[in-house]
Design a protein that fits this description.
- Residues 3-251 form the NAD-dependent epimerase/dehydratase domain.
- The protein is α/β, with parallel strands linked by helices.
- The chain folds into two domains: 2-171 and 223-250, Rossmann fold, CATH 3.40.50.720; 189-221 and 253-290 and 305-323, UDP-galactose 4-epimerase, domain 1.
- It has ten helices and 14 strands.
- The strands form four sheets. It has a seven-stranded parallel beta sheet, with helices on both faces.
- The protein binds uridine-5'-diphosphate-4-deoxy-4-fluoro-alpha-D-galactose (UFG).
- Residues 76, 78, 116-118, 140, 169, 187-189, 192, 204-207, 218, 220, 258, 281, 284, 288 line the site of uridine-5'-diphosphate-4-deoxy-4-fluoro-alpha-D-galactose.
């Protein structure tokens, strides 16, 4: 089966492409390479293009006639979205609208969408369940929520069936070491800790040690990127099998504090990691953890690497090999 993968040159998209190829499908990456890397596209063709370029997108969809789409392409920095909301609404919301219109026009009826726990906003109860109110506190989360809403309406009106997967903190790397996490600029905790272990940065800043959590630092639910990729394949099977549109959390159900992640990174790397306490980062909720019970029920999804140790070991193997994505 041919699957159009928007954002297939990005971190999670590239891992999904590998999983698709392993399952015998052809992932066709559509990516403008603004944040992704050409070198991460290894399991199918790369069609360069922007979601907002309707002509180009039409041509690619007409050429490959995909049976389904995995839609990863998005800008995803919370801080940047606060400073430049127009970018986020143009790229994420308007871009997705163009994509959905093209898919409907070409009779593509199945879509798996990269949504996020950022659509919930500040948690009222933890762990977060899918029926928690969605009140995003930044334009990034708002842009993803608008896309979920569009998917619902497109489903009702045009028969586009979709599964929105709300990721918690994606981390780790391909266990074979072929691809890994790489952003430019890098803002995520795990790669920053490993860069500090490698001496590529002097230290890691811990954004706040005075939260109302056991050790004072923020708690997040880290989920291995290949477990996310597996969930996308299951989602595809679910939709092809006639499953109704829905949305699911993808998390491990366990929370780890920033200090715990840094300690585990020291243990796994066997290297010192210097840190300093810095002010809180605006927009960081103290705790974000998921219940992923529905993903287990609906998809039969079972994370294969639920332990923080495996996430860090795989990420470390990739980082220390100097594997650097490039365009
Ligand atoms: N952190 C530090 N120092 C750093 C980097 C991060 O202390 O140098 C802390 C953050 O404050 C946070 C935790 O480590 O408490 C994790 O931060 P990340 O930046 O790795 O991840 P986020 O939780 O901010 O982001 C994730 C996803 C986003 C999503 C967001 C929802 O990457 O896409 O959760 O809040 F929007």
């Amino acid at each position: 089966m041919q699957v159009l993968v928007t954002g297939g040159a990005g971190y999670i998209g590239s891992h999904a492409c590998k999983a698709l190829a392993r399952a015998g499908h052809l992932p066709v990456t559509y990516d403008n390479l603004s944040r992704g890397f050409r070198s991460a596209v290894r399991w199918g063709p790369l069609e360069e293009g922007d979601l907002n370029d309707r002509k180009r997108l039409e041509a690619v969809v007409a050429r490959y006639r995909p049976e389904a789409v995995m839609h990863f392409a998005a800008l995803s920095y919370v801080g940047e979205s606060v400073a430049e909301p127009a970018l986020y609404y143009r790229n994420n919301v308007a871009g997705s609208l163009t994509l959905l219109e093209v898919l409907v026009r070409h009779g593509v009826h199945h879509l798996v969408f990269s949504s996020t726990c950022a659509t919930y906003g500040n948690p009222r109860q933890l762990p977060l369940r899918e029926d928690h109110p969605q009140e995003p506190i930044n334009p990034y989360g708002a842009s993803k929520l608008m896309i979920e809403r569009m998917l619902r309406d497109f489903g009702a009106a045009y028969g586009l069936r979709s599964l929105s997967l709300r990721y918690f903190n994606a981390a780790g790397a391909d266990p074979d070491g072929e691809i890994g996490e790489m952003h430019d600029p890098e803002t995520h905790l795990v790669p920053i800790a490993l860069q500090a272990a490698l001496g590529q940065r002097e230290k890691i800043q811990v954004f706040g040690d005075d939260y109302d959590t056991p050790d004072g630092s923020c708690i997040r639910d880290y989920i291995h990127v290949t477990d996310l990729a597996d969930a996308h394949l299951l989602a595809l099977d679910y939709l092809r099998g006639g499953g109704a549109s829905t949305h699911l959390n993808l998390g491990s159900g366990h929370g780890h504090s920033v200090f715990e992640v840094i300690d585990e990174a020291r243990r796994v790397t066997g290297r010192p990691i210097a840190m300093e306490i810095a002010p809180r980062r605006p927009g960081d909720p103290p705790v974000l953890t998921a219940t992923a019970a529905r993903a287990r029920e609906v998809l039969g999804w079972q994370p294969r690497h639920p332990e923080l140790a495996a996430i860090l070991e795989h990420a470390w193997a990739w980082h220390k090999n100097g594997s650097r994505a490039s365009n």
